[in-house]
Design goal:
This is Adenine-specific DNA methylase. The chain is mainly α. It contains two helices and two strands, in the order βαβα. It has one domain (about 1-50). It has helices at about 10-15, 30-50; strands at about 1-5, 25. Helix 1 (about 10-15) runs parallel beside helix 2 (about 30-50). The longest helix has 21 residues, at about 30-50.
């Protein structure tokens, strides 16, 4: 999924939840930092909730 105006990364969060690839673009560095932090938080939460493989 390509989001040329990604802002805070909400589309990226939805894409990740659906198992889709995501590329977000935004001109403002502050939005990039915010979106990256949100995606990292979500990735950690998903990793914590997954069942370990035996």
């Amino acid at each position: 999924m390509l989001d040329p105006f990604s802002g805070t990364g909400t589309t990226g969060l939805a894409a990740r939840q659906l198992g889709r690839s995501y590329l977000g673009i935004d001109l403002k560095p502050a939005f990039h930092s915010l979106a990256a932090a949100r995606l990292q938080r979500m990735t950690r939460q998903l990793a914590d909730t997954e069942d370990p493989v035996d």
